[in-house]
Amino acid sequence: MILPRRDFLAGATASALLASVPAQARTPTHNCVMIGDWGRQGHYEQGRLAACMGRVAAQHRSLYTVSVGDNFYDDGVQSVTDRQWITSFESIYSAESLKTPWRVILGNHDYRGKVEPQLLYGRQVDSRWYLPARYYSMRDILPDGSTAETFFLDTSPFISRYRGTKVDITGQDTAAQVAWLDAALGASDARWKIVIGHHPVYTAERRFDEPELIAALVPVMKRHGVHVYINGHIHNLQYIERDGIHYINNGAGSRIDPVAPAQDGGIVFPGEHGFMTVALSRDVFQFRFIGIDGRCLLSKSVNNLS
């Protein structure tokens, strides 16, 4: 299903949307915002969308921001003093509501530059930037005492078409990463298990499905009861559910690309810059796609009643 502009909640502001949430959904939740494919020195509407995200993050009481990769276009960064840290990050995401921690992963464009500065930046320059390793996990305790664990992946090394290109994935051990994910998911007793990677696994359009990630990740995620997979890379907003896992494509943080018709009950959004909000409680993972003018493009709840 493609949702055209006329089907959106025309004219609603971010604050009005949040105020209209049903009372049940306004119970204390663990809230954050997420964005992908953004670092273009303010161009391609990055700056305008960042301003909107700052306003929505304040209304949403966001605890942190998640970046799903492609943090710096076109060729990553070269050092912790690279000017893009200022022109694409510090001066763009300057709202107080976005000065909370940023939980970050790497995208393929980040691999076109040097990865090490992104691993070091949070320790050496700005502590809100959190990228402790190429892949890692974080556990959160929700306001109701339940738990969520998020597993942040490094998906570029899985994509064989990058070998021998400017996307330098040389020396990255994907078997070790899958073994880590399998063990970490298996050891987790969190009520919610969420996986975040830059590249899609399944997409609503189907044409951007990644067979190598389907083969490597889907059996592991299904075996350990993963509820949600979130990615960027595809420069638009999409959603589809496959075999009990909800796949959310959140790659519209700056330049956007055309979409094809969705298949198998999926949803795609043409021509919309945007980001996500997440509100997580014991039984519900609620996410929204928010457009550049603060309108809610999609609101969906994933239930966990086990």
From TrEMBL:
It comes from the Bacteria. Residues 34-236 form the Calcineurin-like phosphoesterase domain. InterPro entries: Calcineurin-like_PHP (IPR004843), Metallo-depent_PP-like (IPR029052), Metallophosphoesterase_PAP (IPR051558), TAT_signal (IPR006311). One of its GO terms (molecular function) is hydrolase activity. The keyword Signal applies. Keywords: Hydrolase, Signal. Residues 1-25 form the signal peptide. This is Acid phosphatase.
